[in-house]
Amino acid sequence: MPAPQKIRRLGDPGLDLNTLVSLSKRRGFVFQSSEIYGGLGSCWDYGPLGSLMKLNVKRAWWQAMTRRSDIVGLDAAILMHPMVWKASGHVDGFSDPLVDCKECKTRFRADNTESYLKDKKCPNCGSKNLSEPRNFNLMFKTHMGPVEDSGSVIYLRPETAQGHFVNFMNCQQSSRYKVPFGIAAIGKSFRNEITPGNFIFRTREFEQMEMQYFVEPGTDEKFYHQWKETRWNFYLKYGLTESNLRFADHPPDKLAHYAKAATDVEYKFPMGFSELEGVHNRSDFDLTQHMKFSGKSLEYFDEPNKKKYIPYVIETAVGCDRLFLAFMCDAYREEVTVDEKGEDTRIVMGLHPELAPYKVAVLPLSKKEELTGPAEKLRNQLAEDFDVVYDETASIGKRYRRQDEVGTPFCVTVDFDSLNDQAVTVRHRDKMTQERVAMSNLNEYIQKALKNYN
Ligand code: ATP
User: What is the pLDDT of residues 251-278, one digit of tens each?
Assistant: First the structure.
């Protein structure tokens, strides 16, 4: 195959987030929530391919964390004791400055709206007839039990981290891990964001992947830097382009109340560099607060050195949906080839194979039963080890393109020769090279190829 003359990516003229929104809907990655009722703002559903890929994103993160010998997993409840949010500071301080436009009724955030920061103007209609900023708490409230009085108020968690802090002792004692060790969790969080948007970048319901690493005070700076590096390498391993990543360290006067040091890993989304993940040195703020509010000791006893201390916490926090979006943005490419027949564009979702929804597509060359029978059998054989899709409609060229567009790394074609040689043609997504492989050896072949990718 000749190399394409041109490669176009998101951010190039005519290719932006909308390109991805429409591909996502067309191919079953992400749909607008409650679409048949006109949709619900900023809520999205992951479709047949999206749900597979999201699981893969979570698995990649989960394994990077919990396969280490110093991190345990946790799956805490979304609903927590209301005192948790008092202790954490969320009831009093988890708010954004909200401004109302009195002309067009738009509501926006005072702290990140360019027209407001520059000339105190509404971003929608340009009016200067605006309310003063007032603090708007981002936590969703609900009621626990059948009585809706003030005593039954409970919150949907706005972050998963508090589950780690209140379970610090449970996890440490049950695992018998020694400090330094970490707790990792994946779960839904909810924030009543004033201005959600940019597809799945900022939503009101989202999934977080957070890890809290508990360390001895005095060693926190070392681990903070280690975790910055570890997280950077994770992104490179799963294929994000290095020049699309950068750290944005928080200047000391902009640090959150709990933080001793903080940085954002930023990714260059089509709308510009924006936060993907936060890496924070949270000091002993959280454990100290929970000790104060619960009256329970969360001190760690360092047996060999016979000393007690409240561990410091290094936190890594990334949104699963936001990372999903970053992987999609980075993977999307259009390969343009021009020859005597004209211009041809191949859309490829060049996802890391571990993240791709399907690893293999099985494509019988014809719809004749003598081929579809063995092809379906082969599909079942592959399904023992991989997420696999079967497609017998349209020309083989069209079917290859369908799989390229959703990132399937391997297409397997069952043809008439297969009936004699018991072999199939494996076509690779990126280079479009083809190889003949024995059917009996196919699972092993794919397994190896996936492992050796990079
Ligand atoms: P932002 O400044 O974007 O509001 P934040 O600094 O409040 O984010 P954290 O509280 O540090 O974010 O949350 C950790 C991660 O969770 C973020 O880096 C992001 O990936 C993800 N996240 C936070 N809020 C949202 C949201 N509303 N929608 C999707 N992901 C989110």
Answer: 998 898 889 999 999 999 999 999 999 9
Domain that holds residue 118: 96-137
Evaluate whether 389 touches 339 at the Cβ level (below 8 Å): no
> In total, how many domains does the chain have?
3
Which ligand 1 atom sits nearest the alpha carbon of residue 158? 10
Alpha-carbon distance of 199 to 20, in angstroms, equals: 9
- Please report whether residue 284 resides in a domain: yes
Q: Do 46 and 195 fall into the same domain?
A: yes
- From the number of C-beta atoms within 10 Å of its C-beta (0-12, 13-18, 19+), residue 294 rates as middle
Residues 101 and 79 in one domain: no
Residues in the ligand 1 pocket, defined by CB under 6 Å: 159, 191, 193, 202-203, 206, 208, 275-278, 317-319, 321-322
CA of 247 to the centre of ligand 1 (A): 15
What residue's CA is closest to ligand 1, atom 24? 202
- Residue 419 backbone zone (phi > 0: left; psi -120 to 50: alpha; other: beta): alpha
Per-residue pLDDT tens digits for 355-404:
999 999 999 999 999 999 999 999 999 999 999 999 999 999 999 999 99
Per DSSP, the residues of 306-344 read: TEEEPPEEEEEEEEHHHHHHHHHHHHEEEEEEEETTEEE
Of ligand 1's listed atoms, the one at least distance from the Cα of 317 is 14
| Domain CATH code at residue 260 | 3.30.930.10
Q: Could you tell me if residue 335 is inside a domain?
A: no
Q: Give, using CA atoms, the residue closest to atom 18 of ligand 1.
A: 277
- 189 and 291 fall within a common domain: yes
Distance 323 CA to ligand 1 centre (A): 11
CA of 253 to the centre of ligand 1 (A): 20
Q: Which of 109, 160, 202, 209 to mutate to test the pocket of ligand 1 (most atoms within 8 A of CB)?
A: 202
Q: Are residues 131 and 187 in the same domain?
A: no
Atom of ligand 1 nearest to the CA of 280: 11
Report helix, strand or coil for 362: strand
Separation of alpha carbons 302 and 187, rounded Å: 31
What's the token pair of residue 46?
Answer: 């992951």
360-364, strands of its sheet edge to edge: 388-390, 360-364, 410-414, 423-428, 434-438
